Predict the structure.
Amino acid sequence: MVKRSKKAKTMRKLIKAIWIFNWFNSCGFTELVPLVGSRWDMERFGMIIVGSPRHADVLFIAGYQTPKSIKRAKRVYEQMAEPRVVIALGSCTMTGGMYWDSYNTIKRLEDYLPVTMYIPGCPPRPEAIFEACEKIFEHVKELE
Amino acid sequence: MATKETELLDEMKSKFKVDGKIQRERRIWVSTDEKKLMEMSNWLKDRGFVHLSAISVTDWLEEGNYELTYHLWSYNDKILVTLKIKIGRKNPAIDSVTPIWKESAQIHERELHELFGVKFKGNPDLSPLFLEDWERSPPFRKDFDWREYVREEFYDRENEREKVYYD
C-alpha cells in the first residue's frame, strides 16, 4: 500500500476517471478514433470525451497547431478546472513533425501551453495513450 | 467536323482576338490579357459558363510574371474553359470578377490576395482568410524563403535538438 499525502488523496479523487477534452488538428483525430471504438474501448477505464472543456480533466492535443489554432487551444486550456493535465500526442506537437519547415505551424507546444506529457509517434499507438493515462495517476501528486 | 469546342473557340477568337487551343475533348485553354478580362467574363457568363470552379495563380519568378488562371464550367455545353492571364509580379493588380460570379469568386480572390498579394480592384472584402498576425510578404511568393523565416521565428541555434536545422 502506497502512502499518500492528504493532498494527493484529494487530487486523486478529483481525477478518478479521466474526462477528456480533445483538441485535435489534422490527422490527429482520425488516427486516435480506434481508442473510442470497441477494440481499445477507453470507456472501460472510465475515460470519456466530454463536450465542454469546463468538465474535462485532461486536454488531448494532437496534430500540428497553427498560430491561429493555438490561440483557441489556449482559451480551451484556460477554461479547464484545476487540476488539469495537458497531453500532447504525436511528433507534430514536439518538433513540427513533417511540417518542420512550414511557415504556418508551431514547432514546440511547450512554448505556448504547459505540457504535462508528450506521447511520441506518428501517430502514437492506442496502447501508448493508455500508458500515458496510467502515468497521469502517478503524477497527480506532482500537479498543482 | 465542327464540334462544339471548335465552334466556341472560333467564336471567342473572332470576337476578342485571343489565342487559344483545344487542349483535349471538352477542355479549352485561352490566353488573354487583363484589359479583356471583364468583357470576356461577362460574355462567357451569358453564354452559360455560370460555374467558376477556381482561380489560381502561378508565380513565374524568372519571367517576373504572375499567371492567373480562371476555370469556368458550362452545364449546358459541358466544357471547361481555362482563361489564362499574365500580369506583372511587382504590383500585381487585376479587376475583380466578383460582380459577375459573386461569392464563388469572392473566396478565391480573398485567398489569392492573402497568399500571393494580388490586388483585386473592386473586391469589397480582401481581409485575411487563413493567416493571423502575418506581417511578412505573402507566403506563397517564390522569393519568400520560408526556411529562413522558420529558423528565425521558431527555432533556436543554441538548442541541442534544433541545431540540425541550421546546417
Summary: Chain B touches chain A at residues 130-133, 139, 146-147, 149-150, 153-155, 161, 165 (CB under 8 Å). Chain B has a mean pLDDT of 89.
